[in-house]
Amino acid sequence: MTSITPRPETLRRDGGCLCGAVRVSARVETEVQACHCVQCQRWTGGGPLFCVPVSDVTVIGEDALTAYRASDWGERLFCATCGSTVLWRMQDRPINYLAVGLFDDQTGLRVTDEIFIDHRAPWLPPFPGAAESSEAQEMVKLDAFLTGATL
Asked: Which residues pair with 97 in a beta bridge?
């Protein structure tokens, strides 16, 4: 008998940046990822980037978004008017994660995955029950993704 892993619950959520120039609507999974890499810490002002997998995304005010290519593969999008963090994605790829702070209603969400834990700020304790992976583990996953290999 084959076991099927159920997809996380999804919720329709709306939100936007601080000034309202960018509004989003998406199906949001309830499982939040916390990225502790140094770039995310600097981009968010000290803590991790909390992001959530999304699908069926609608963005209003996309012309207000500015992209910063922080590496050879990723880009960070933010509101050019107010500076709000909006998303991180692989360059020129569809949106599949959004910053949790955008959403008007964040009930039912929980941190289930922490990445780049070897860079977690010393003042921030681990999230109970969250899976953890190091920078080295994440770079192996990234390399596999970029080369089309399977893990």
From this structure: 53
pLDDT at 136 over 80: yes
Q: Rounded to an integer, what distance in angstroms lies between the CA atom of residue 106 and that of residue 69?
A: 28
- Facing residues of 48 across strands? none
Mean pLDDT of 98-114: 97
Question: Which amino acid, 28?
Answer: V
**Collapsed DSSP state (helix, strand, coil) of residue 29:** strand
Quick one: which H or E segment has residue 51? strand 49-60
The values of phi and psi at residue 48, to 5°, are -75, 165
Taking the alpha carbons of 130, 133, 139, 144 in that order, is the dihedral positive or negative? negative
pTM, entire model: 0.89
* CA distance readout (Å), 72 to 49, 85, 91, 116: 19, 20, 8, 18
Strand-pair category, 97-99 with 85-90: unpaired
